[in-house]
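Journal club side-thread
Mid-discussion, someone asked how the predicted structure for our own chain would compare to the paper's figures. Pasting it here so we can look after the session.
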Amino acid sequence: MTSATATVTHTAALARLGHALSDPTRSNILLALRDGRAHPSDLADALGVSRQVMSNQLACLRGCGLVESTPDGRRTWYRLADPHLATALDDLLRLVLVVDPDCCDGAGCTC
């Protein structure tokens, strides 16, 4: 693998993660799945969103390659596609809180 290929691959992976994290619902789904797999209806209830919103957001996260689904009878389990993602999310949370916990107010960056 050449360094140019690695750069393109890494850039694409970071862009997918950034897209996923740019939406609060998708971020909350990823954070919820750090502890293990879950059913969409349980995630929807826990995050206070409709099942349709949950379905759309999980489809987006699947498309980004960040979650995967496993059918189980009439229900489906979702989990993080790579266990390293849970650690990476924990590291990002620590980094953001160390840098400046009051930097962004949720409506836009105040930095």
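Post-session note: Residues 70 and 111 are 41 Å apart (CA to CA).
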